Fold:
Amino acid sequence: MVSRRALIGISALVWLWAGYNVLRIGVAAYGPFVEPATFALTAAVFAPFFVMFQKLARENRVRISNMPTEKNNPFTFFTVRSYVIIALMMTLGLVLRGIPAVPRFFIAFFYVGLGSALFLAGASYVLYLVRFDRYAEADTHAAC
Structure:
């Protein structure tokens, strides 16, 4: 069993790790495609994922702050729904990279945009963790 603060830390590590790995794959494919159009496509992917991941991270932080007990199962840093979404996203990513018809250009801009958004969501958990006492108190009765 771990504290709510530890759950926030676990969430931070998972989001940062996922973001780093997706970003790393995208950056490795990006080399031959460095041009304004690729940057624009990367930004177009990043923007909606950034908004979505920040919202999910905020909801998750509030959920953790409102857990009824201080000590919780370490796997409760995500909901069952979140685990399912992660499994689907990982499967889709593996399938996309395995299909020869999917151009490396797509992998480059899509993965850099997605990975950046994931990594920044992880960074938001780190910020929350650093200021945990202040934020957790404010979130204790916040609506998700």
Notes: The chain has five helices and two strands.
